[in-house]
Specification:
This protein has 11 helices and 12 strands. By secondary structure, the chain is α/β, with parallel strands linked by helices. The strands form 3 sheets. The chain has a 4-stranded parallel sheet, sandwiched between helices. The chain has a 4-stranded parallel sheet with strand order 3-2-4-5, with helices on both faces. A 4-stranded parallel sheet has the order 7-6-8-9, with helices on both faces. Helix 6 runs parallel beside helix 7 and helix 8 packs parallel to helix 9. The protein is flat and about 65 Å long. Bound molecules: FE3-S4 cluster. FE3-S4 cluster binds next to helix 1, helix 4 and helix 8.
């Protein structure tokens, strides 16, 4: 039995950059803040808090002269404007891929186009992007796209600019886009699924199709981890999403000869290693050893 670890599992460029920026800011200041979770991983957020970075969900709690690190998912435009007006110093740790979509949204707004974002309406990245273009339409997939067009047929003639949340499942984005392009008269689109997401999703799908059991490690709040789990579930009948090695159960690996392991873009290497080691040890203890075979023989002699 063996455990195969996906090559791309773990921190992506944007998350690594955000964490490094936060650590550097903590060293340079005598106390700074993060507004919401810097990245979607509770373990990393706790480590940053221990390094002296306070966490608040409320922008009103920040005062003139404070330093705040803007999270990797970006922040709403009105919040950033209010903080700047108040004299709060901002360190921008938003992933450049997210910032690019915010700019596309703002440009669409300036040109009088309706911005259509394929993603999850309640995700902080999506809420931040939507704030750059009033009237942004967020659709979570092809069915939502069809419903939106059916509700008001005049929407077919709107000038639309479509893009995707950075962590969107490619198939969902492409199918939704196909509907918009087929039904509407004026659609421009941008493929804004980030490379890190694309690579992790394709690798996870391939690995999941070759193994008996697939384990996905990541925070339950993490959108990209959730999507990896969904993608793996299409290829492999036994998929488990966990946050830490302690959540691994022996049953997960029963009857399995090859297990796959991948992780979301915000899962630190230490946690992946912990899970990998635990899985490998579990597998070892499940394999019949020479001693146990001899013991079994001895037992059967005794019975005889
Ligand atoms: Fe950025 Fe993509 Fe990571 S958007 S934060 S590189 S998952």
């Amino acid at each position: 039995m063996q455990v195969i670890l996906a090559e791309s599992a773990g921190f992506c460029y944007g998350v690594k950059r955000a964490v490094e920026l936060a650590q550097k800011t903590a060293e340079e200041t005598k106390g700074c803040w993060m507004l919401g979770d810097l990245i979607h991983n509770a373990h990393v957020v706790e480590e940053l808090r221990s390094a002296g970075i306070g966490k608040t969900e409320d922008p009103a709690a920040l005062r003139h002269g404070d330093t705040v690190i803007i999270r990797s998912h970006g922040e709403r435009r009105d919040v950033l404007e209010a903080l700047a007006a108040k004299g709060v110093r901002m360190v921008d740790a938003a992933c450049p891929n997210v910032t690019r979509i915010q700019k596309l949204a703002a440009k669409a707004g300036e040109e009088g186009r309706t911005f259509v974002l394929i993603g999850e309406a309640r995700h902080p990245e999506v809420m931040a992007i939507a704030s750059y273009c009033p009237g942004t339409v967020v659709l979570d997939g092809p069915e939502a796209a069809e419903t939106w067009l059916r509700e008001d047929p005049s929407r077919r003639d709107l000038p639309l600019t479509a893009a995707a949340q950075t962590t969107c499942i490619r198939e969902i984005f492409e199918t939704s886009l196909k509907i918009l392009k087929k039904e509407c008269t004026n659609v421009e689109f941008f493929d804004t699924i980030c490379n890190a997401t694309h690579k992790r999703q394709s690798e996870a799908a391939e690995l999941a199709s070759q193994v008996d059991v697939m384990v996905v490690v990541g925070d339950r709040k993490s959108a990209n981890t959730k999507h990896l789990t969904e993608i793996c579930s299409r290829q492999c009948p036994a998929v488990y999403q966990i946050e830490r090695a302690e959540e691994l159960k022996r049953d997960f690996l029963t009857g399995c000869s090859v297990a796959g392991l991948t992780a979301g873009a915000s899962t630190p290497a230490g946690i992946i290693k912990e899970v990998y080691t635990t899985m490998s040890e579990e597998i070892k203890t499940m394999e019949p050893t020479e001693e146990s075979f001899e013991e079994m023989l001895e037992k059967s002699f005794k019975t005889l």
